[in-house]
Amino acid sequence: MNTELFIARRLFFDKTNKKFLSQKIIRIALFGIALGLAVMIISVAVVTGFKKEVRNKVIGFGSHIQVVNFDSRNSYELSPISSNQPFLQKIKTVDEIKSVQVFATKPGMIKTDESIQGIVLKGVDSRYDWSFFGKNMIAGRVPELNDSARVNEIIISEQLANLLKLSLNNFAVFYFINENEINPRMLQLKICGIYRTGLEEFDKLFVLGDIKQIQRINNWKPNEISGFEIEVANFSKIDETEQQIRNATIDYSEKSKSVLRTENITRMYPQIFDWLKILDMNVWVILILMTLVAGFNMISGLLVLILERSRMIGVLKAMGSRNWSIRKTFLYLSFFLTGRGMLWGNLIGILLILFQKYFNIIHLDPVTYYVDFVPINFSLFHLLLLNIGSIAITLTMLIVPSLLVSKISPEKTIRFD
């Protein structure tokens, strides 16, 4: 029989403890633990949700990895490559790769009677995955592309539509300039859909349509494209997957005149992903502070418990109990009390993040935060780590204060009472 655990359980469930002063202090300590854990759960869910939401939006515009011509400058005017690449079959066998899609980009301008705006026309083919833009559509539909005829339909952002005073089913006039050509090329395309992602710098730039329109403007052959967009299954392994793709393209480049290069989304937009990394530091600061607050709250509660139970400690010592045995009793009791506070903390934190996740109670300014409401990433793994880490650190902090037990003399406490 575990004597220390038995005594701790009796003390924990003893209803007569309510008359002790320590109970009021313990309640304050448990409130601090519950509040601290709830704040940690909410912080991790919000920050990871925010990072995931912004990251997915950036990836939606350019996928995870791109393979383009090595001669291309760091601009949207890319040198053409052939869509019939021998390495495609090899990289499609890589486990982490979900899809490979062709694309082409062409910088240009939209001109109306009152305004003019620089844009990038992104062309895709009939096999393009429209799921990202489909869920961000606020009006109309995505273009219905095919492999035979050119489609004169595009989708633009709500920001561009408002700026240029364009609406659904309007025709927009585009102008493009080619190298070594004096006169600009003109296109008149119909707006079949309007999207809104909240990423202002992307929304005001990208217009999506048929890749055959770009091929015609650039005088490209039907099999010439700007590059390939590759979607990976696990973002955390993007560097490893890119290396596998790079190795495949290098093997091909040794047998061909064309030289290809790979770019992953984190290097294409470093300012956004560096900013997202900084958010991790904020979370760690919150976690450390809340854990320390919970630990010091329990330290004060444990010290009061030991002082109020000094007579019991004296009796146990007189009966032959060792100091470590009595310390274990109070550590078990602290574990039960901390668990009660964490139970309430979990309940409060989980309820709040579920309310936000399903009802979007708290809204944000998308111009500033890139999202319309506070995003939530509810992860059982994160929840488990927070609970295990919190209780482990709290109990570790209580080991030193429990040494007070060894300072209590059984002779003095029993004789004093």
Model description:
This protein is of the alpha+beta class. It has two domains: 199 residues, no CATH class; 188 residues, no CATH class. 52% of the residues lie in helices and 18% in strands. It has 15 helices and twelve strands. Strands 1, 3, 4, 5, 6, 7, 8, 9, 11 and 12 form a ten-stranded mixed β-sheet that branches. It has a two-stranded antiparallel ribbon with strand order 2-10. Helix 2 packs antiparallel against helix 10 and helix 10 packs across helix 14. The longest helix is centred in the N-terminal third of the chain and has 42 residues. The two termini are 30 Å apart. The model has no long low-confidence stretch (mean pLDDT 88).
Return Rg in Å. 32 Å
**What's the average pLDDT?**
88
Shape: elongated
Determine the fraction of residues in helical runs and give it as a percent range: 40-55%
What is the makeup of the main sheet? Answer: 10 strands, mixed
User: What oligomerization state is this entry in?
Assistant: single chain
User: Helical segment tally?
Assistant: 15
Order of helices and strands: HHEEHEEHEEHEEHEHEEHEHHHHHHH
> First CA to last CA: what distance?
30 Å
Secondary structure: number of strands: 12
The low-confidence runs, each spanning 5 or more residues with pLDDT under 50, are none
Output the keywords.
12 strands, ten-stranded mixed sheet, two-stranded antiparallel ribbon, about 425 residues, about 50% helix, alpha+beta, about 20% strand
Brief digest:
With 417 residues, this protein is of the alpha+beta class.
